[in-house]
């Protein structure tokens, strides 16, 4: 692909069930021109995220659906290459909600500068960005882990899960991860310090494995995936358990309403709290979360990994990989060199 033209990825049909590469197309258009108070931004990295699957359906949610034959949008890190705003200089690296394309025009107040001295710029889409804030507030504000408690995390080796486990360890909890490959299990235990982890794709009895891993039950279940994995974890909750509902990725491609155990009796008897949350509800506390996470990274208390696919044209493939578990840590697409 020629980078001097503007290649753009469009959603051309709404996925039925699991998305495929046929739902996307790449086109070439001209490079847009900025007007007053606008910037021309060259895309360096873009983020693919599970929530985008919901936006591919034609239904209202907390965020509107993507429109067919329009450029997909999401978190983007880019370099300002032309500015008509006195607040930005050519060469500034910025974060914004922009298109899956080589070049975007954005209003100056739509993007914010990234401090490259704080941490590598890619962290603005991961540990110091939306997924990091999800882990920080979802676990600490809703889960409220205490010393000696048992915390179980599904989707444990992903962008959010890998951080939740480390935060829980910092709070003195026993941490059990659930993930989909032996390599991920090794990563969680040997590199991130999880107490143990279960490969849900190879175990013949996840219920039994969980019971063995959590002899005192589950005080906090940080739910990233939903479905039968969550059914198994919820059967083990303790008195006063907290269950932050972060995501339900195992259900995002379902064509029919999923039916599972009726868990209200379990919640009632255990006086447990199950609470859905969206990271956007914590926007006014992001500064706190980012400062704290940045400090913990500097001190070596929080580690992170990024799975980087090269090339704008591979963005759909990277997105699809979220559903087959191709990523360990935050999935990014590198579009151009800085
Ligand atoms: N509430 C919020 O504000 C908020 C914000 C960000 C993210 N989220 C949610 O948090 C969850 C994790 O997001 P993320 O960005 O950190 O993604 P991620 O975990 O980096 O990537 C998705 C992972 O989900 C796992 N997965 C895919 N299909 C699965 C299935 N059928 N059953 C079990 N696991 C499956 C895969 O790992 P395996 O190899 O382990 O299968 C995959 O790597 C998602 O549900 C997302 O929607 C919520």
Automatic annotation (TrEMBL):
Q: Which UniProt keywords apply?
A: Oxidoreductase
The yes or no answer to whether the keyword Oxidoreductase is present is yes
Which intervals of the chain form a coiled coil? none
Instruction: Quote the Pfam families the UniProt record gives.
Output: ADH_N_2 (PF16884), ADH_zinc_N (PF00107)
Q: What is the lineage of its organism?
A: Bacteria, Bacillati, Bacillota, Bacilli, Bacillales
Q: Which InterPro entries match?
A: ADH-like_C (IPR013149), ADH_N_2 (IPR041694), ER (IPR020843), GroES-like_sf (IPR011032), MDR_fam (IPR045010), NAD(P)-bd_dom_sf (IPR036291)
Report the SMART domains cross-referenced here: PKS_ER
Provide the protein name. Answer: NADP-dependent oxidoreductase
**Which Gene3D superfamilies does the record associate with it?**
Medium-chain alcohol dehydrogenases, catalytic domain, NAD(P)-binding Rossmann-like Domain
Q: Where is the Enoyl reductase (ER) domain?
A: 20-333
Q: Does the keyword Oxidoreductase apply?
A: yes
GO MF, one example: oxidoreductase activity, acting on the CH-CH group of donors, NAD or NADP as acceptor
């Amino acid at each position: 692909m020629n980078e001097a033209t503007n290649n753009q990825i469009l959603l051309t049909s709404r996925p039925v069930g699991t998305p495929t590469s046929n739902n996307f197309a790449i086109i070439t258009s001209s490079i847009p021109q900025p007007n007053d108070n606008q910037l021309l931004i060259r895309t360096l990295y873009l983020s693919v995220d599970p929530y985008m699957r919901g936006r591919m359906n034609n239904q209202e949610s907390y965020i509107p659906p993507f429109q067919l034959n329009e450029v997909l949008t999401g978190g983007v890190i880019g370099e300002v290459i032309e500015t008509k705003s006195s607040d930005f200089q050519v060469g500034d690296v910025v974060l914004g909600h922009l298109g899956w394309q080589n070049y975007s025009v954005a209003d100056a107040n739509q993007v914010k500068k990234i401090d490259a001295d704080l941490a590598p710029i890619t962290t603005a889409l991961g540990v110091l960005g939306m997924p990091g804030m999800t882990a920080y507030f979802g676990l600490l504000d809703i889960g409220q882990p205490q010393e000696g408690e048992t915390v179980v995390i599904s989707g444990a080796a992903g962008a959010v899960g890998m951080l939740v486990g480390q935060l829980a360890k910092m709070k003195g909890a026993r941490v059990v991860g659930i993930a989909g490959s032996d390599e991920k299990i090794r990563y969680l235990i040997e590199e991130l310090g999880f107490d143990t982890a279960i490969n849900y794709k190879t175990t013949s009895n996840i219920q039994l494995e969980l019971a063995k891993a959590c002899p005192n039950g589950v005080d906090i279940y940080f739910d990233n995936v939903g479905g039968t994995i969550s059914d198994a974890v919820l059967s083990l909750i303790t008195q006063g358990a907290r269950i932050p509902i972060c995501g339900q990725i195992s259900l995002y491609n379902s064509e029919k309403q999923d039916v599972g155990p009726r868990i209200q009796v379990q919640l009632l008897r255990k006086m447990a709290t199950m609470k859905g949350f969206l990271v956007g509800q914590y926007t006014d506390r992001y500064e706190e979360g980012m400062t704290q996470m940045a400090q913990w990274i500097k001190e070596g208390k929080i580690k992170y990994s990024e799975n980087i696919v090269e090339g704008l044209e591979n963005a759909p493939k990277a997105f699809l990989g979220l559903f087959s578990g191709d990523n360990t840590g935050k999935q990014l697409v590198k579009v151009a060199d800085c």
